[in-house]
Amino acid sequence: MEYANSNDLGGKRKRDAFEPDEAENGGVDFALLEAIERSQSAVEAIDARAVKKLVLAFERRLNSNLEARLKYPEQPEKFADSEVELHEEIEKLKILAGAPELYPELVQLNSVPSILGLLAHDNTDIAIDVVSLLRDLTDEDVVEDSDEGAQVLVDALLENNALESLVQNLGRLDESDPDEMSAVYNTLATIENLIEVKPAVAELVCERTKFLRWLQNRIKAREFDSNKQYAAEILAILLQNSAANQRRLGQINGVDTVLQSVAMYKSRDPKSADEEEMVENLFDCLCSLVMPMENKEKFVGAEGVELMIIIMKQKKSAYGSAIRVLNFAMTKFPRACERFVDVLGLKTAFAAFMGKVPVHKRNKKESYQEELEERIVSLIASLFGGITRGSRRDRLLSKFIENECEKIDRLMELYMRYSNRVKAETERLDQLELDDLEMDEEERYNRKLESGLYTLQLIAVILGHLWSSDHARMRARIELLLKQHRLSKNDVKNVLQEYHDNIGDLDGPEEKERAQAKIQKFIEAF
Q: What is the pLDDT of residues 359-407, one digit of tens each?
């Protein structure tokens, strides 16, 4: 037995067969307007008494259906009517989405366990109804109207194992069926809504269920569809700020899975804006995944460095995303830096550094070009930090001598551009303080970082590496360019000093001390 869902994959209401065509009524669907008016008046009239009435009617239909199924387990025709009636009562509960302030009443009536229990109903269509209901009740626009009511409902859902029930139901849905495909989408939307209301759900759902494994399997599919797109988006959300989830996915071969998923786009571009968004989410997943040290190791072992270089060489739309992933993977991880040099990544990286960037429709924006510039500067700084000696270091340094030291010229060009930006922001902040706008040192520093100070500091660090190499030709070129721009070594020292003084201890006091000692050496060398 099948029932029409109120939501399709895009969250739009399906058009019923009996609805008159708008054109037949001069472009106005009067039946639809009447239905909206009835719905609005019903929502306006709903109160605690009405909630109780709805819940009692639902519980009656639920009990009738359970009794009929127990009495006639082998005779579906005997319980078919009770199933239709139960479906109708579940649909009626959706009216509560118009009054989220009454969610505490819904919870107090102990209806949440009954609703969630139906996710395991023998008739998959009843479970589909419940998923659609949960999506409506937790919809972002709805819960915004009553944060308190939303918190009460979400707490009740979690206490009654909603996450486990939703993920278990996912496992039995067949996406070759349009209604079940829609239910998958609604399940993902519901879990996202729960995370919006209670961010801790992002870790709870991975801790309590096999949701990460389900998402991992879903993004493996070769064919693109809206559920694969949504799975990639949810996975990116789960990984974004959770080291625990990053490690969990790494432990179930997640690094390799995500690499395989992005590898499909190494030599071709996405065919639509939605597919393009999915690819960006997959790269976001990779960036988060390679934060823990053990996952960086897995990334190198799975030839992730090689894949990112191939993507860059192909010059498709994922070019900038590949640089972003390499930047995350190589930060404070010498082995990735060494592999990058060994597989001839320097040529590709320095082509990007020199501005030889492929132009695609989406990356023509100035903001994209700037982000790419900042990422490649960070990548080169990571290379210098990760490769401290030997032939690899020599190969890296030699890049700045070839073609009449053009890379040093480019470095100084970037130094001047970001230096001017920071100066302009500093002057603006000074003016704000003159206008009696209170601002502490931390906020002032953060604003300067946002205006380009961080990239300026990395450029100064690269200059420090070049100067400290004791290469006469490099030093002469740097001094000449500083003189041409009416700067001195003291200007670079000042940037490095500010960087030194503001290094945090996020990685522990010992790491902070090491980082400061390295910068101090550059300051002294200048």
A: 766 556 678 888 999 999 999 999 999 999 999 999 999 999 999 999 9
Domain extent at residue 304: 210-398
Q: Within a domain: residue 29?
A: no
Contact 113, 130 (CB under 8 A): no
445 and 299 within one domain: no
Examine the domain organization and report whether 214 and 355 are in the same domain: yes
Specify if 355 maps to a domain: yes
Assigned token pair, 70: 């127990």
Phi, psi of 305 (to 5 degrees): -60, -45
Among residues 398, 413, 445, the one where a domain terminates is: 398
Give the residue carrying structure tokens 């082998």. Answer: 74
The greatest distance separating any two alpha carbons of the chain, rounded to the nearest whole angstrom, comes to 94
CA proximity to 412, closest of 460, 450, 355, 470: 460
pTM above 0.90, yes or no: no
| 389 and 411 part of one domain | no
Q: Is residue 20 part of a domain?
A: no
Instruction: Say which residues have a Cβ less than 8 Å from residue 78's Cβ, sequence separation at least 6.
Output: 68, 71, 72
Judge contact between 323 and 372, C-beta under 8 A.
Answer: yes
In 10 A of CB 515, how many CB atoms? 18
Rounded to whole angstroms, how far apart are CA atoms 190 and 97? 13
Give the span between the Cα atoms of 285 and 279, in whole angstroms.
10
**CA-CA-CA-CA torsion for 151, 156, 160, 163, nearest 10 degrees?**
-20
Residues 6+ apart with CB under 8 A from 496: 457, 460, 461, 464, 519, 522, 523, 526
In a domain, 94, yes or no: yes
Amino acid present at 242: S
Please indicate, yes or no, whether residues 185 and 319 belong to a single structural domain of this protein: no
Structural domains in the chain (count): 3
pLDDT digit string, tens, across residues 53-79 = 999 999 999 999 999 999 988 898 888
Domain match, 325 and 180 both: no
- Let me know the angle formed at the C-alpha of 343 by 292 and 403, rounded to the nearest 5 degrees: 115
